[in-house]
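[User] Once you have settled down, look closely at the record that follows, and write a paragraph about the fold.
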Amino acid sequence: MEENKSVDEKTIVVIDDDGSEKEMEILFTFNDDEYNKSYVLYVDPADETGEVFVSSYTEEGELNNVTEEKEWAMIEEVFNTFIIQAEEHVHDENCNHDHNH
């Protein structure tokens, strides 16, 4: 998945290797000062495996592959933080018993 056709706040349309357009659901975006890049993490809502895709993107909306191992490690750390915060948020919403958060 390399090219971004259009972006709105919750979905992104990518063109896959076969030239087919696919609408993906954006999990979140973030900027990194060390690499001076913006990143988008997204999933295919039709894919039940839950595979997460990651691309850096330009101001023009062009998606680029992440190729550096150190860059992947940084993205993985950000993603893990996102998962922990999402799980805590769900727990807080569903919590109906007393304990410290």
Summary: The two ends are 40 Å apart (CA to CA). Residues 69-94 form the longest helix (26 residues).
